[in-house]
Fold this protein.
Amino acid sequence: MKWTVEFTGRARKQKEKLPAKVREILYQLVREIEAAGPVRGDWPNYSKLSDGDHHCHLKKGKPTFVAVWRENKGQIRLVEVIYAGSHEKAPY
């Protein structure tokens, strides 16, 4: 069974502001989450932040771009991307 990945309104706006190369990496991450689930230990600097929250780096260097996503426990196989942007403003 596949996972469903949705973007919050804020994250949707943030992803449109990402450089094209970083945006493509984000789409790759979303495809992998849809296929294999929210735990992505094979991504750079991946970590589980708290119960159901995860993050990883999309691009290292300056600026560093990260994605933060949340598993929704009350719903079936739903992951919500809550942040996509620079490391400095990440909500963790």
